[in-house]
Structure to design on (589 residues):
């Protein structure tokens, strides 16, 4: 009898080929606009007058008079409370849900999904704007403090913390839960090329690495805060609440001076680039990987059959013959001490933690909920506005995530550089956290040069590759390739395809709620997206009440929620994150 021939893996050269579209997309939509932004920062002028080269004069004035430092400090202060939520509250909630068992954990995932699909920065800010009215309802009355320069900064910090509590906690919990499920990852399989998968790492290192990445991502995203400041204060009163993104917008587009605006964008981009490189180095150095646990994987704290050497074994195929010794004795997995009592306590703690989260999230979101219930029908909710919002958002997401997925299959699945292939992500790392803001001046100029301003095509986000999606999908393809004995198509492509779809949906939601890019390229009311229409409505004297729910219509929320809940229960709940691949096992014969 001969052993079956292992499936032939595709050539690693195919990995380089699959990465080419992402490299071209990065060059066109990230590298060249970055170089263009730096060049613009060395000039003075813009739309209204001819540009002239001034060297580093813009930087000297920006840093010398304290504009940049004041805006940077205030922007960082806005991140403080969301950062505490992300690195303190979220991991505690994740641990409680993980230890509570299957149904409390899945109920938590469903509740957290609602916070994600209903989040709209402009909608939340518009709801808090109602607090400036004489008959301000309840908690929204806190916004009255935005009128005074002395109290406006602290008030805006509280509003940002309350408005983002649910979505920040939800996204961070989604990152921590797979790290806690590392204990469900089997010991690794030899793949078709004879490489062996890593044995599972500990939960502690995985949680630590994920915590570092969550903290870096929270700071990087917070540095690009734009919608809250523009809607609620426009940087005032007396520039007391100006953010980095607001300073760039004011300089480049309100005062039509591209040089100073590009200087702010360049300095912000340098910080984001450093954070992206640090995050990527952490990922590569820790040998982080993401994989799918078997559908029958034991729950944390469950009893796991093991061999005398402690290796998990499959349950017996049938009844044990009389007098025969069992092949493996059931041994309680770590954390199972206490039996049913420990499970009951864990479930109770998880349910209480989830109820507390829901109560706090409900209080923080009440101004938005109350605003949605009281929202009048307006042009911001029209079919035309929704088409302007969602068609470009979905189209941009399909392109950027699709290009990233091809590269992830090549880098993570085919491993063109072997075990160190994830270090190739350093090529994309400087733009890991860069959104439309730092490249907005250059991209707007490119759109104007092509004659696309005030066109429907201009509403499509200008990024051709989603670097965050590339990172996540590469780690998933890597983990699948290391733990499968199937061919590339069945062991890597098919299991990772749902994640590509999930990330495309996530990017589409982000694109649809973006205010800055459609605000820059669409001046005609017929091209307004829902967030821009809400913004215009708030600046109109004719509008008695803002249409708070325009960016989150019921139909869109319902469809998105069904899709997200299905993804949570059928796919995301099976993800596991491991670190430090440990030593390789001998390849199977």
């Amino acid at each position: 009898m001969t052993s079956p021939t292992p499936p032939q893996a595709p050539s690693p050269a195919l990995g380089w080929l699959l990465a080419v579209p992402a490299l071209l997309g990065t060059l066109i939509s990230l590298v060249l606009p970055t170089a263009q932004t730096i060049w613009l920062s060395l000039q003075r002028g813009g739309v209204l007058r001819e540009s002239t080269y001034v060297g580093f004069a813009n930087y000297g004035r920006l840093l010398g008079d304290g504009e940049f430092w004041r805006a940077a400090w205030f922007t960082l202060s806005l991140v403080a409370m969301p950062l505490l939520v992300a690195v303190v509250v979220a991991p505690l909630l994740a641990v409680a849900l993980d230890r509570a068992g299957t149904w409390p954990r899945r109920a938590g995932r469903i509740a957290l999904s609602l916070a994600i699909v209903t989040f709209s920065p402009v909608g939340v800010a518009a709801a808090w704007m109602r607090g400036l009215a004489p008959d301000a309802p309840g908690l929204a009355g806190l916004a009255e403090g935005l009128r005074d320069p002395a109290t406006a900064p602290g008030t805006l910090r509280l509003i940002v913390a309350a408005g983002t509590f649910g979505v920040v906690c939800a996204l961070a919990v989604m990152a921590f839960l797979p790290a806690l499920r590392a204990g469900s990852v089997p010991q690794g399989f030899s793949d078709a090329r004879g490489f062996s998968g890593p044995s599972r790492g500990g939960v502690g290192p995985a949680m630590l690495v994920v915590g570092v990445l969550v903290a870096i991502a929270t700071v990087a995203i917070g540095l690009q805060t734009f919608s809250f400041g523009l809607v609620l204060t426009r940087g005032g009163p007396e520039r007391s609440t100006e953010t980095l993104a607001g300073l760039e917008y004011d300089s480049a587009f309100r005062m039509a001076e591209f040089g100073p605006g590009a200087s702010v964008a360049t300095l912000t981009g340098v910080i984001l680039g450093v954070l992206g490189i640090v995050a990527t180095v952490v990922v590569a150095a820790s040998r982080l990987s993401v994989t799918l646990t078997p559908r029958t994987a034991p729950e944390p704290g469950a009893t796991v059959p093991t061999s005398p050497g402690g290796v998990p074994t499959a349950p017996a195929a049938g009844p044990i013959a009389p007098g025969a010794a069992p092949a493996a004795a059931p041994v309680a997995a770590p954390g199972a001490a206490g039996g049913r009592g420990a499970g009951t306590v864990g479930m109770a703690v998880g349910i209480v933690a989830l109820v507390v989260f829901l109560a706090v999230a409900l209080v923080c979101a009440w101004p938005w909920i109350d605003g949605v219930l009281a929202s009048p029908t307006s042009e911001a909710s029209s079919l035309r506005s929704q088409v302007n919002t969602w068609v470009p958002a979905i189209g941009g997401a399909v392109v950027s995530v699709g290009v990233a997925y091809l590269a992830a299959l090549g880098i993570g699945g085919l491993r063109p550089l072997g075990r160190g292939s994830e270090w190739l992500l350093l090529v994309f790392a400087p733009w890991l956290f860069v959104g439309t803001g730092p490249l907005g001046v250059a991209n707007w100029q490119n759109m104007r040069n092509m004659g696309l301003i005030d066109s429907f095509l201009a509403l499509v986000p200008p990024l051709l590759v989603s670097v965050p999606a590339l990172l996540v999908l590469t780690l998933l393809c890597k983990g699948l390739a290391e733990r499968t004995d199937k061919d590339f198509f069945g062991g890597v492509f098919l299991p990772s395809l749902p994640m590509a779809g999930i990330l495309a949906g996530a990017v589409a939601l982000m694109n649809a709620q973006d205010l800055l890019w459609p605000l820059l390229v669409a001046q005609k009311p017929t091209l307004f997206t829902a967030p821009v229409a809400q913004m215009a409505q708030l600046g109109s004297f004719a509008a008695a009440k803002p249409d708070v729910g325009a960016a989150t219509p019921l139909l869109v929320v319902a469809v998105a929620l069904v899709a997200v809940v299905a993804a949570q229960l059928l796919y995301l709940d099976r993800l596991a994150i491991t670190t430090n691949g440990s030593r390789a096992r001998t390849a199977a014969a």
Summary: The two ends are 13 Å apart (CA to CA). Residues 2 and 589 are 11 Å apart (CA to CA). Confidence is low (pLDDT under 50) at residues 187-200, 303-342, 582-589. The beta strands are 43-44, 52-53, 289-292, 303-306, 329-332, 575-578.
